[in-house]
Design brief:
The protein is of the alpha/beta class. Helix content is 38%, strand content 19%. The protein has twelve helices and 15 strands. Strand 13 (334-338) and strand 14 (342-347) form a beta hairpin. Helix 6 (154-171) runs parallel beside helix 7 (186-199) and helix 7 (186-199) packs parallel to helix 8.
Amino acid sequence: MQLRKTRKIHIGKLVIGGDSPIAVQSMAATQTQDLTATARQIEVLEKANADIIRIAVDNEKDVEALKILREKFPDSTWSVDLQENYKLAPLVAPWVDKIRYNPGHLFHLEKDKSIREKVQFIVEAARENQCALRIGVNCGSVDPDYKEKYKNDSTEAMVRCAVDHCQMLDEMKFENYCVSLKDSDSDKVIDANRRFAAERPDVPLHLGVTEAGLPPEGIIKTRIAFEQLISAGIGDTIRVSLTLPNDDKGQEIDVGRELLKDISEGRFRSVPENFLDGLNIIACPSCSRVENDKFVDLAQDVRKMTEYAEKYKLTIAVMGCRVNGPGETDDADLGLWCGPTRVNLKKGTETLGSFSYEEILQQLKKEVDQMILEKFDALELN
């Protein structure tokens, strides 16, 4: 396994980068304001020995909940996802060790301000509170300007966005940051991180396959990317994003540590023959943005219901929230993104309708059957 060349950065008491051990993180999948559920989730992840726990903060009530939780867990290493509200940075920074911002979300709020002004605002909040930053670039929410400029190479759009944001932070004399470039396609994750590491070998990388989905497929997708990258000295922190019930989220940490151990000891597992040659179900990991706990059961039901179509090369995306769901289902043949009481069904970028959780499986099956007939001139009867 090649040695990493990244600089070291500090996330609270944790040091990543260079010759530091690769850190394993996960995130609380609960509504942050539900103090009992979120405390339980943190306890589950601490018991699994998570190095970093990410918590979502979307508004000032979440910030107040964060303060209360910090009193209960003073020694946990926490990262916060700002989602679309960058103005929360100075409010959350005193209570956490790292702030993650998504460049693709910065254009939503205060559109009269430049991206650079918004980044400067986040940087100053982090600097004042000795917080690390993560520039988190996701395939489904790439900055629209980069998406348009590199419309024929979505991976390059992600890489160029990340590199440019690194340049901004460097010019602001802020070095305590890392980067992530995530996609639901393992090969694109490998490609994006290789390209970035070649250009900025000094910047620590957080690795993950977003929306990897249900085990065991989600574990295999993650292993494909991690084996190729970590063995080449690329990767300083990792996240295994699996669609799991809240009480089982510790499995993400267990799987992550098992993968790291296998790679360090040279145990590379071959990918099953024809893996992903047929049906591919993408599902996001449950998180605090999920507005209905039925989402995890729905993802499992979709997989079971579509077993009859497993030989057909189709992608079905099951997303748990309205933040990432609409965009991150665009590249799937069929996409579902879940709201509090309804599930939105898409065919590519086209919205087909909104259905109750009880109706959606029957409607999805109709669309799968129709797509098999259209794309493969066949009809599977089930």
